[in-house]
Structures are given as C-alpha cells and as structure tokens.
Design brief:
By secondary structure, this protein is mainly α. The chain is built from five helices and three strands, in the order ααβααββα. It has a three-stranded mixed β-sheet with strand order 1-2-3. 25% of the residues are buried.
Length: 166
C-alpha cells in the first residue's frame, strides 16, 4: 500500500464527519464570533470546508512563500457543503497520483530566500491538511454548542447523538 492510500482513506472518512458538522451550521449565526479576535462562525466553517483542497494545492509544490491568509465568509450556510465537496475533490485529484518518493521528498516554506521550515511532504499533509483540519472542526463544534445546536457524532457519542445506540 502506498503512503498516499492511507492519507486518502483518512481524508474520505473525515470528510464525511466534517460534512455532518457543516450541515449543522445555522444561517442566522454566520456572523457570530465568541471573541473579538476570533473568526466568525461563517469564516471558521468556510475555512473548515476548504482546508483539504487548499493544503493539497500548497503540498503539490516543492516550496511556497509564506501565504497571505484571508478569512472569507459565506453569504449562506448552503455554500458550505459544495465548498467541502470541491475541496475534497481537489485534494484527491492533486494528491492521488503522488508516489512514496514524492511524499517523502522535502517540502519547504520560504520567506523570500530564507527557509522558514522544511519537512517531508507527507508530514505537511498529516499535520496541516489533517490535524489542523480536525483542530478547527473541534473549534466549530464549540461554536455550535454555544448556540445550542445538537452536535453530531464525531469519534463517538455526543450528548445529542449516539451512533452506537440501538
């Protein structure tokens, strides 16, 4: 089994979980933020929807300059699932053909001519495309709980949903 196969399987499984979370985002709360320094629920939800494709696009290159991040906000919660679907499809397309040599080759983030850091491409995908994605999805679950939105099962039962109950 190639290294990419396990990453793509995890991406697909986690995309289904992320879909269940994004489906709960209420239109009326997109502009809400828990703190002045925090993203709005809409900004966070759109970020969660687009992480896989955005990171895969960066990982497809051997090095990138430090990106300038923006936080666009959806005008409607209905934009979130199509954004997730496009993002996951983009990630699968960009990563699907990568062989083990490509995945273990160094990937670099640069600031001008200065190297900020270097790591194997597979480590970038594991830490940023996946772990970073889960981190923000967890933040979003807290935002939803603060609005009394019933939370879907993620890795097991929540107070609102138990996939193991008969």
């Amino acid at each position: 089994m190639a290294l990419i196969d396990g990453l793509l399987q995890e991406l697909e499984m986690e995309a289904q979980t992320t879909r269940r979370v994004l489906e709960r985002v209420p239109d009326a709360q997109l502009a809400w933020r828990p703190h002045g320094k925090a993203r709005t629920l809409g900004e966070l939800a759109l970020h969660v929807a687009t992480v896989p494709g955005g990171v895969a696009e960066i990982a497809a290159q051997s090095q990138v300059q430090v990106p300038q991040f923006t936080d666009p906000s959806p005008t409607s919660a209905a934009e979130l699932i199509p954004a997730l679907d496009q993002s996951v499809a983009k990630a699968k397309s960009l990563l699907g053909g990568m062989d083990d040599a490509t995945l273990t080759a160094p990937w670099r983030m640069m600031q001008g001519e200065r190297e900020i850091f270097s790591l194997p491409r597979v480590a970038l995908l594991r830490s940023i495309m996946l772990n970073h994605w889960y981190h923000h999805r967890g933040q979003m679950l807290v935002y939803l709980r603060m609005h009394n939105v019933p939370l879907p099962s993620v890795y097991g039962p929540t107070a609102d949903e138990n996939p193991f109950a008969a």
